[in-house]
Amino acid sequence: MTLRRAGPTRREAIIQLAALLAVPLPRLKFAATDPLDGTIADYQAGRRRGEWTAAEVTTRALERCRAEGMRWHAIDWLSDTAIAEARAADARLRAGRTHGRLDGVPVFAKAIYDMNGSPTTGSSAEWARLFPTPVRRDALEIARLRAAGAIVLGKSAADDFAYRGNGTSSHTGQVLNPYDPTGTRTPGGSSAGSSVAVADGMAFAALGTDDGGSNRIPAQFTGIVGMKPTFGLVPRTGVIPTWPYLDTHGPVARSAADAALLLAAIAGEDSSDPLALTSAFDGAPFATLHEDALSGVRLGLVEAHVPRGEMSAEAVAIWDRALGDLRAAGATVEPFTPAVTLATFREEFAAAASERGDVPVDPKSPAPTANALLRYFAGRTDDPRRAMRLGYAAYRTFYDVLPPTFEECVPLLDQPMTSDAAGRSFARSRATVVAKLADSLRAAGVTAMVYPTMPFNAPRAVDPWPKIRTALAYGNWLGLPEVSIPAGLGADRMPAMNLSIVGLPGTDARMLALAHAYERQSRRFVPPPRGL
Q1: Number of structural domains the chain divides into
Q2: Catalytic residue among 124, 156, 190, 522
Q3: Is 214 labeled as catalytic in the residue annotation?
């Protein structure tokens, strides 16, 4: 591992400065004229002062959903009980018996979540046709949000079965980016509708999932905060499964503090998810994030994750400005070469398995996904095999590691995901590789790593993405907590880049605190224009 000082040449600095001068200045604070455009803390303070009620703001949120949300193709389904739930929250506030900081707060869930009273479409037109009947249970995360008093407005559109990163739903249509006046550029995905709903002020925060960037990609393309928590921190029961050894669930929000509140509500052990963490969860550190959290902190700039030669001059300028914001907030930021990078992590996993004499690692082994899908249906129907058979072909169109037919998949169904040889080998290698990473961080005195979430901004939805390697899969394979936070708009008034702050497993609250301190120093969030 190494730490060294480095900087751009004089010529590079001039080019970057010229690019930066074309970048619009950010707003200096979150908008406060409409409570939906502010933070959860500001919204709750206004409720306590009697300036608005949860019922009034929830009504306003639903109006935005029916207008702008539908216009952006961001909405999968809207609740018909949200206003009644908001009135109940107002009654609790008057009686002094609120359920906490999320009580009365409008939020969204992703289309792959079960929600009592709504069909679970998975954003797939075929599943919407096959399973039109409303489910009669809440996914665990939605149940936890309800217990915290949150108002779940409904479900947001996503890529079919959360498989891709473009916001392309066969059920609702291509989700559009609210910053883009041409209506052609992607908001990213797969948590596309959740991110658009948050960016455009339809909700304060939303649930999303992330197997290889599905929260962080749309967070960057819509200029908001997206988090991939520590693997296993959030149990995934009641949600259409993806890759059980990679999938993480977490928040998207307009601020790190709001993301922290949502994560604290949904995290914590539960035996219904065989791969969830079993240690006790302490939500207290998530409740208060301090503006001086970066003071005296040593951050490692992972240059291997910053492809400067392939980035535009504007992207490089915005990235270097983000590093300046971190330093202005009190951090020491110096280049750092960790023991494992995006260029080496797959080889490190394979080598660890080979040294153990283990089978090759495979985080997308078919048996865990097959078992997870059966477990999902077992929670929502009395005849899970019949339901799985009905939806199998549509699901398998995307998750084609599964056998071609349901009959061929049957032998895999009862094999617990924790007993799959390739999955177990992957988990063992993850522990080995993370330990090497931890040693290199400790040796260098580094608290967290920083690098761009993605080194380019949103392309057109119909175009292939730039062939620039990102570090998105790196975080999923290692199970690291990563907070992606806005670094500002480009000259085209589109979100240009997000900064990723990445730590070791279990440091989620610390990463959110560092992100909050950066956010309070930089003030880079700018909401999309109204009335595009």
Answers
A1: 1
A2: 190
A3: yes
